[in-house]
Design goal:
With 239 residues, the protein is α+β, with helices and mostly antiparallel strands. Among the domains are: 49-110, no CATH class; 116-203, no CATH class. It contains eight helices and seven strands. The protein has a four-stranded antiparallel β-sheet, with no helix packed on it. A hairpin with a 2-residue loop joins strand 2 and strand 3 (66-69).
Length: 239
């Protein structure tokens, strides 16, 4: 430590010296150099490669020889890609529309199944063959729900199953999974029931499902109107 202090003192003493070939002192030249240095950025440096490109007709974005999915609503849109070491972030305007693990393979296709659910809801016949859904590991209760929905309603059951999956666009997996499990326990096999149970879990209130009818909508609670209520309305109108 004493050695560093000594060197620091020597540096300060030399600031008044003028080196051969220069007219300014070392201290004056130091101040000029400091003035010429760039101001530090206001925000931390974003350590990534930035590329502007366009999403294809099948909602894929090419970056470094690999394709990454974006929501189907952004097909043909201009997008910007930020390539980090471990992640690829895709945006449109000021909005981030997709995040993926970065692939260092060649000609790889990286999907997010959630991006294609709106399209599958319209084309449920492609549910089994859809490449973006291959390898999507969901809790076992989802497969049970799908089997029961299709057994009851065939093609319409497939559509309701996709609608249940689309709840994951808004709600956390834990809430949706819990609602699916609860629906199976109750025998309430339908999208409306699952959605109602998700909301009940979030709002921490008991579910109210009419299990005698399909699609198991929440029970309506209608109270008997009291004559005094009409009298209060009439007195209010008169006033």
């Amino acid at each position: 430590m004493s050695h560093l202090v000594c060197e620091s003192r020597q540096c300060l003493k030399r600031q008044d010296e003028v080196l051969r070939g220069h007219s300014e002192t070392i201290g004056e030249r130091l101040l000029a150099d400091l003035d010429a240095l760039m101001v530090l950025p206001a925000v931390p440096y974003d350590a990534c490669e930035k590329v502007s490109t366009r999403a294809t007709s099948i909602s894929m974005v090419r970056y470094r020889c690999n394709d990454y999915s974006v929501p189907v609503a952004y097909a043909h849109h201009e997008v910007h890609v930020r390539g980090y070491v471990h992640e690829v972030v895709i945006g449109c305007g000021a909005e981030v529309i997709a995040r993926h693990r970065r692939s260092y393979e060649k000609a790889d296709m990286v999907f997010d199944p959630m991006h294609f659910l709106p399209l599958l809801e319209q084309k449920v016949g492609a549910l089994d063959q859809a490449a973006p859904l291959q390898g999507w590991e969901l809790p076992g209760e989802f497969a049970t729900l799908r089997r029961l929905l299709e057994a009851r309603m065939a093609k319409k059951g497939k559509r309701e199953y996709v609608q249940v999956l689309r709840l994951l666009e808004t709600f956390e997996m834990g809430h949706v999974h819990g609602a699916v499990r609860q629906a199976l326990d109750l025998g309430a096999i339908g999208y409306d029931a699952v959605k109602h149970l998700v909301l009940c879990r979030i709002e921490r209130r008991p579910p109210r499902l009419d299990l005698d009818i399909y699609p198991y909508l929440p029970k309506a609670q209608v109270e008997t109107t009291k004559p005094a209520s009409y009298m209060s309305l009439m007195s209010g109108a008169a006033a």
